[in-house]
Amino acid sequence: MSGLKNLKKRRRVQVISIAGACVAFVLVLLWFLPSDSFQFFRSPSEVAEATPMPNERFRLGGLVETGTLVRGQGQEISFAVTDGGASIPVVYAGILPDLFSEGEGVVAQGNMINGRFEAVEILAKHDETYMPTEVLDALKAQGVYVDPNGARITN
Predict the structure, then answer these.
(1) Is 130 annotated as a binding residue?
(2) pTM of the complete model
(3) Average pLDDT rounded to a whole number, residues 50-62
(4) Distance between the two ends of the chain, CA-based, in angstroms?
(5) Do 83 and 137 contact (CB within 8 A), yes or no?
């Protein structure tokens, strides 16, 4: 009977050791990844400071700049996204969400190509007052966020 207990104990130690080794391996992989691998969202100011590679897909978020929304032929739309510090031109071919309008928050996913952001997806908001946390933080950092009650908020 004691041989069975030793076998269970040895098996338990082996399983815990293998699990620990797997966790350590994943942590080592994460440690050696480039720091920009974790940044999926960028504000217009960050994009203006360091232009991403054309093959790098990321999300650009901010406010749709007033007066920049132009509807082209078919479903092509162009506009600019700003955070108060920089403005990035965006081109999108597709159907926009119902709550998309000038002066409202937007998150677009795509690539920077030839100095403009070519979006493949425009993410919809839940309602008129919702704004993604990343966009909200970027606007507060630039000092241009105005809450729904009209008060200007900064960090």
Answers:
(1) yes
(2) 0.60
(3) 84
(4) 67
(5) no
